[in-house]
User: What shape does this take?
Amino acid sequence: MSTLGDLLKADIALHGPLSVEDYMARALGDPVHGYYIKQDPFGASGDFTTVPEISQMFGEMIGLCLADHWMRAGAPKAFVLCECGPGRGTLMADIWRATKIVPGFHEAARIVLVETSPVLRSQQLETLGKVGARAWHVGAFADVPDGPLWLVANEFFDALPLRQFVKTETGWHARLVGLDETGALAFGLAPDPDPALTQDAPLGSVLEIMTAGLVFMQALAQRIASQGGLALLIDYGHSESGLGDTLQAVRAHRFVDVLHEPGDCDLTAHVDFAALARVARQSHAAVFGPATQGEFLRLLGIEARAQRLQQRARDAAEVESALARLTDMSPRGMGALFKVLGIGQRGGPVPAGLGEVS
Ligand code: SAH
Assistant: This one.
């Protein structure tokens, strides 16, 4: 068991079980032992690979979508170009390179990165320095400076802590992390059902509520509704709310038990885009999509970009295979499983690639 695992067991023995939400928050964000706080989890030698790390084309398409929308919104002379959870900084670096050709965009942009991890913060500055970009860090969205905001968050919402409830004969009980008879971490249920949850479902069903994600979305949507701009959220998730346990742990590119070595494994859950869209609408923002990543990238012209890159690339086959992976629309393909949601100001321009207003 990891150091954090031992600490959590001692905490539980003393104070009682943790909610799934608190478990996830500690496993990922514990100020000393949290997964994202203490290491760089990305790449072939890390635990997982994200889309921006597969190909520069992803960031280029996102950059062009943001810059095109900024131009059609009147090209404000000063705006915040923000990324939440930038990982190694690859996506923002690709956005920056791709938007060099857009008149006035770089001069007007102030890059602000929302990041809690000190290890990743320094990597992000290094990556951005290589493309001549300066950036400022904040630890929370509330600290992003005022002004019109063009924002991207890729695989960010899936890492925000969520609550789980299990349906029994007596109602929906919060799922908890406690100790079994051997003293190991084990799932259990709160003794009393949650009175606020009344929906019918088969016994044993699991309901997930993205508590932290919904709070984040409310702040983001209110901000864009009042100050203008666009947010693009890209994540693995579903367009319709549903039931089911989607919490998963990954280490060294393999699935492991969710309670295995907390702090040493990545924990994520699928994003409920319908719930995020509802909150954004309630916050008076315009909602675009969600579209599948494959469709979004195609509409933005990723195929033409791949062709041009292939003409120049040393390894044309690599560009071809990245294009196929990013836009793979088979049921288990990245192009179909990842979704893109746009949040804008009502009456503002419709972002390219997300034509449909839902
Ligand atoms: N967007 C990147 C990395 C995704 S991993 C990519 O696509 O490659 C999630 C990122 O979110 C990491 O940078 C992690 O440190 C950051 N993060 C996780 N929880 C956070 C929180 N509550 N506030 C700010 N950043 C957070």
Notes: The pocket of S-adenosyl-L-homocysteine is lined by residues 29, 36, 50, 52-53, 85-87, 91, 114-117, 120, 154-156, 159 (CB under 6 Å). Residues 70 and 229 are 7 Å apart (CA to CA).
